[in-house]
Specification:
By secondary structure, the chain is of the alpha/beta class. It is about 55% helix and about 10% strand. Strands 7-5-6-4-3-10-11 form a seven-stranded mixed beta sheet. A two-stranded antiparallel sheet has the order 1-2. A two-stranded antiparallel sheet has the order 8-9. Helix 5 crosses helix 11 and helix 8 packs across helix 17. The longest helix has about 35 residues, at about 150-180. The radius of gyration is 29 Å and the shape is elongated. Pfam families: K_trans, K_trans_C. Belongs to the HAK/KUP transporter (TC 2.A.72.3) family. It is a multi-pass membrane protein.
């Protein structure tokens, strides 16, 4: 898959044609807006489950409609469409993207191996919306965050908490959407038969939904977009019919006057009912999280032109019907289907079930995306990430998370069997994510956009107050289902914190035990070791110095390769690193040592290449560094980037320092002794040819020749296998976290992608015990 080309195409979203924008807007209906589009299925039912009554004056139904209208207008339309979508991280959205944006504008990130050279990346540049004085409140806030590690940890935990609540929504939203859609069968069968059909039917649909995820967002989006279009047309058409047929004056209820009337009359019951009204904006966060799959303009067009008007008409239509039918409270509990004309109920039921499946798709997609971001930035255990599109970089599928979500979703469906309990749980998770977004967004307004602090305070006070009111109405239902997202968030947050803490401690051990370059220089011209043919790649997380694993290796086996490369593969807090900026190459010691340091930088949404492509790019980058006249020596400087010795080098696709030829080879893997067990695998073999150029001096030509000869012999991967233990004398909590928690996660998570892609026949593992 030509994913790197796809990334470049997708990074230029701002220059897309209108045809492309409209295509993306259409496709976003099936991926982003399915969740919020299905909210009419359960909003009124959950709201009126709080026994607020339905009097002949219609004050309650008008008040609920007014609250739904203004909530839809203020949160998804004003907050997300007009403000939050502008805070994209080079085209990426979501809670963790906001955190990444803050990390680049202020030194608040906790990634251990950051370098000054990373700030020179094209996508690292700070898109400021204004100029701030050095002594302004914004600068003071930035300095305060940079000085205090405690505030940085709080900021990270806040971002992780938002991530955990997104995962919680990924569990709860499919359950309530599908269960609410299937509940329409209650109008077509007896209650005795209905209870035996509702739960099994919802579970079968959910299993099918999660089984579809492996086909990817692109195929699913084009499959689901027509369903959402039909669903929005249905609910808006039925809404218009109900308005004109039952109550044409229902539009008067859009006045905020009815909100105050409703709250004044219902008091505590009205406040409790806010937990049901909150469900009308579930899916708002998906607009922001979906930026990685679509463009900002396409998401705005789809919402303002189709989704928002359709939802308003649907809620108005339901309210118009209920205002003329006061018996629905006892018989059908304000269900969606009772407001649908009887002849249309079966077709609408089928479309609703399909739309509920689509609605669940959007949050599942967002969950995959945000977990991938966390994993890339060392905040979540490594998982398998499958890229399902060769054209659009953000479309991924994570098998382990997919099946885990499915099991949890089935458990919620079977355990609750009630939309009220599911709604209470889903509402708390949704409003928690929105509160986290508001807090991080206020910091972005000040630190990244350089706007007045009063603007940020006004933003967080206005929207934060609305969300805090909804939060208070949701959290009071803790024992009525709202405990589920809290429990899920606690488990996932514990996993994330343990993994991040263990990763940091492991890196600190590497830094403290690294060997100085002066040790290598003291060995003299021959380095005191036998040199064998080929290229040796010593994989390390260090960006300077010599890893302890190498000294441990040569102590037990006093020989290494004629060309030695200390390879560091790291992620930086940007979505993508351009291919021409991928590699940082420098020397370790004098030129005749033939020892190099290569730092390979990936964004948190970048795709790691397979071993053949990676080896080709690596050799090309070193060759280009040599041809450009790389520094003769880094002396004893353990921070080469500070000494100006590291050179930014692109991949083979961006430069050709050596001539490259490819030929097909056949590898035969023999699994047994019989002919039937032979497996034939075609493979591309890359060969480098020295360019004939009079500009290349003798020393450079000799060095390039030696590099090509070593590449022809082969590449060996020297991989460290660490076993982490807490230091003797550590407290019990640290021993529990490191010895039990981190080690369990490490053993049960996947190896880094660079380790998995290394050929087993060319790999050498060196074990070390880490006491942190």
């Amino acid at each position: 898959m030509d994913l790197e080309r796809g990334i470049l195409q997708n990074s230029s979203k701002g220059k897309e044609s209108w045809k492309t924008v409209l295509t993306l807007a259409y496709q976003s209906l099936g991926v982003v807006y399915g969740e919020i589009s299905t909210s009419p299925l359960y909003v009124y039912r959950n709201t009126f489950s709080e026994d607020i009554g339905h009097s002949e004056t219609n004050e309650e139904i008008y008040g609920v409609l007014s609250l739904v209208f203004w909530t839809l207008t203020l949160v998804p339309l004003v907050k997300y469409v007009f403000v939050v979508l502008k805070a994209d991280d080079n085209g990426e959205g979501g809670t963790f993207a906001l955190y990444s944006l803050l990390c680049r504008h202020a030194k608040v990130g906790l990634l251990p191996n950051c370098q000054l050279a990373d700030e020179e990346l094209s996508e690292y540049k700070k898109h400021s919306c204004g100029v701030t004085a050095e002594r302004s409140l914004a600068s003071s806030l930035k300095s305060l965050l940079e000085r205090h590690k405690v505030l940085q940890r709080i900021l990270l935990v806040l971002a992780l908490l938002g991530t955990c609540m997104v995962i919680g929504v990924g569990v709860l939203k499919p359950a309530i959407s599908v269960f609410s859609a299937v509940s329409g069968l209650e109008l077509s069968m007896s209650k005795e038969h209905h209870r035996y059909v509702e739960v099994p039917g919802a579970c079968i649909i959910l299993i099918g939904l999660f089984a579809l995820q492996r086909y990817g967002t692109n195929r699913v989006g084009f499959l689901f977009a027509p369903i959402v279009c039909i669903w929005l047309f249905c609910i808006s058409a039925i809404g218009l019919y109900n308005i004109f047929y039952w109550n044409p004056r229902v539009y008067q209820a859009l006045s905020p006057y009815y909100v105050f009337q409703f709250l004044r009359k219902t008091r505590r019951g009205g406040w409790m009912a806010l937990g049901g009204i909150l469900l009308c904006i579930t899916g708002s966060e998906a607009m922001f999280a979906g930026l990685g799959h679509f463009s900002q303009l396409s998401i705005k067009i789809a919402f303002t032109s189709l989704v928002y008007p359709s939802l308003v008409l649907a809620y108005m239509g339901q309210a118009a019907y209920f205002s003329r039918h006061h018996d629905v409270e006892q018989e059908y509990h304000f269900g969606f289907y009772v407001s649908v004309p009887e002849k249309l109920r079966w077709p609408v039921l089928v479309i609703a079930i399909l739309a509920a499946v689509v609605g669940s798709q959007s949050i599942i997609t967002g969950t995959f995306s945000i977990i991938r971001q966390c994993s890339a930035l060392s905040c979540f255990p490594r998982v398998k990430v499958v890229h399902t599109s060769s054209k659009i970089h953000g479309q991924v599928y994570i098998p382990e998370i997919n099946w885990l979500l499915m099991l949890l979703c089935l458990a919620v469906t079977i355990g609750f069997r009630d939309t009220k309990l599911m709604g209470n749980a889903s509402g708390l998770a949704v409003v928690s994510v929105m509160l986290v977004t508001s807090c991080l967004m206020s910091l972005v307004i000040v630190i990244c956009w350089h706007k007045n602090v009063l603007l940020a305070v006004g933003f967080v006070l206005f929207f934060g107050s609305i969300e805090a009111l909804f939060f208070s109405a949701s959290v009071i239902k803790f024992f009525e289902g709202a405990w589920v997202p809290v429990a899920l968030a606690f488990v996932f947050l514990s996993v994330m914190c343990v993994w991040h803490y263990g990763t940091l401690k492991k890196y600190e051990f590497d830094v403290q035990n690294k060997v100085s370059i002066s040790w290598l220089l003291s060995l003299g011209h021959s380095l005191g070791f036998a040199r064998v043919r080929g290229i040796g790649l010593v994989q390390t997380e260090l960006v300077s110095g010599i890893p302890a694993i190498f000294s441990h290796f040569v102590t037990n086996l006093p020989a290494f390769h004629q060309v030695l490369v200390f390879l560091c593969i790291k992620h930086v807090p940007v979505p993508h690193v351009r291919p021409e900026e991928r590699f940082l190459v420098g020397r370790v010691g004098p030129r005749y040592f033939r020892v190099y340091r290569c730092i390979v930088r990936y964004g948190y949404h970048d795709v790691h290449k397979d071993d053949n492509e990676f080896e080709k790019d690596l050799v090309c980058s070193i060759a280009k560094f040599i041809q450009a006249g790389g520094g003769a020596c880094n002396s004893s400087n353990d921070e080469p980037e500070k000494g100006g010795r590291m050179t930014v080098v692109g991949t083979c696709s961006t430069s050709h320092p050596l001539l490259v030829s490819e030929r097909d080879e056949v590898d035969v893997d023999i699994a047994g002794t019989s002919e039937a067990n032979k497996v034939i695998k075609p493979k591309k073999r890359v060969r480098f040819i020295m360019p004939e150029s009079p500009k290349i001096d003798t020393d450079t030509r000799e060095e390039l020749k030696e590099l090509m000869e070593a590449r022809e012999v082969g590449v060996a991967y020297i991989i460290g296998q660490s076993y982490v233990r807490a230091k003797p004398g550590s407290n019990m909590l640290k021993k529990l976290v490191i010895n039990c928690g981190y080690e369990f996660l490490r053993k049960n998570s996947r190896e880094p992608s660079n380790v998995l892609s290394a050929p087993h026949a060319s790999s050498l593992e060196v074990g070390m015990m880490y006491q942190v």
